Automatic annotation (TrEMBL):
Entry keyword set: Hydrolase, Protease, Serine protease
Species for this entry: Gillisia lutea
Domain annotation PDZ: ranges: 89-159
CDD domains, sorted: cpPDZ_CPP-like, Peptidase_S41_CPP
Protein name as catalogued: S41 family peptidase
Signal peptide stretch: none
Keyword Hydrolase: yes
Family: Belongs to the peptidase S41A family.
Amino acid sequence: MKNKSKIYLPLLLGLACAAGILLGAKLDFSSTQGLLSSNPKKEKLSRLIDYIDYEYVDDVNTDSIVDVTVNRILENLDPHSVYIPQQEYATVTENMQGDFVGIGVSFYNVNDTVVVIQALEGGPSEKLGIKGGDRILYANDEQLFNKNISNDSLISQLKGKEDSKVHLKVFRKGVKNLLNFNVTRAKVPLKSVDASYMLSKNLGYVKINRFSETTFQEFKKALNKLKKEGAKEIAIDLRDNPGGYLSEAISIVDEFLKDGQLILFTKNKKGDIEETYSNRKGSFEDSKLYVLINENSASASEIVAGAFQDNDRGTIIGRRSYGKGLVQREMGLGDGSAVRLTIARYYTPTGRSIQKSYEMGNEAYFNDYVRRYKNGELVHADSIHVADSLKYTTPGGKIVYGGGGIIPDIFVPKDTNMEKENLTYMLKSGIFNPFIFQQLEKDRAFYNALAWEEFQKEKIITDQVVTEFLSFLSSQNYPVKMTEYKPLLKKYLKAVMAQQLFGNNEFQRIINEDDRIIKKVIELSSDN
């Protein structure tokens, strides 16, 4: 890796100078006037781009040259400084904003027809009574079936400006005539709180999948609901949460800390330190608290776990977190694209950095999971390597370590059986979804009429359904053998069916059944 870096160093330096000029010309900071002043290097790049545009013998897309240059520069800074091209920016922004404007359905394009998987909770379609299995045949009298329309085109038909109207004609099995719906497009929430329900009499559970602009608002709503249901203790599940907006994570921490406690501090290249403290009365400051993390909990998730751990608040349960302690700021480049540039490092209240090393390059950095798997730290807590030089002590006398992720207070090993690993990977890949959709289509009226309580009691996933699923996998060139984990496969199939019928909350309820870390939390709670 180092030899390769030496070979490309002159090229990278040249690219760095070139893209630095372009970046400098586009940054939208009000405080960077001195940085953006004209100099010969910038003029040199501008002249080169002009020569290629106007004189080069072949047509060349100079925009693509600039994109490649920017990416190569950022790759050699750190793993989390990234470029967002113009064509991807809207999607990335929408995901982090926590909502989008549209009619509020998820759908498949089945046999060249738009078939609703689910009307999204809180969206305009749900409010009007559009259901899973409905076929949207016309939008404003424009035919949407048998036209080989791409998914992108369909999405553009169904999305639109807020408060704009679209007239839908919908076919529903068992109904003779087409149904007419006048839908007013509205903001549809993209929820970051997947689930909130009671694990036991006093123990409430909240699962957060990322930190978007609406996460604290969703979290607070979930807490209030759980409190009404009798929750005196809270378990916050941050497993597989990659992070997001730091401000949302800080607001959540503030719900559980007394006023004036340090949550984190950041330090930039000048050595300037910015500290953040809890500053308001939280609704669960005196309750028992549990935070669930694993090897995929990163960034803002680690801020939450680190803030609680360093303030001797709650119990962190699971496996060592990812190890991302770099702070990015998004900067527009003037053409609809943007760069997220690392501008500081963050530190937990005891002063530890949890950023893991990236000295061996980006490939080694992002493949760190493989290293952890091989050295056994996902199974044995004593395989986690820590350095005494990175030892810190909390106010309560607990020893904690920096140098790469949050080490939990209570370790729960990962089940590394390859058959189960493959099954879990399949669940995350989405391969279950089309099969379950086909199952529901066999008797849509029956399934749509089921209440959640009835669904729980019904023997929905039979051995015959499992056999059909294995055949489906084979037809998709996805051959899998099931032996001892057949019950787990049944559970996953039922969970995905619950998701399509009832939503993420019920999906998570089923997924959490017999979960090792959830069991440990329940064992530690006051209900036992």
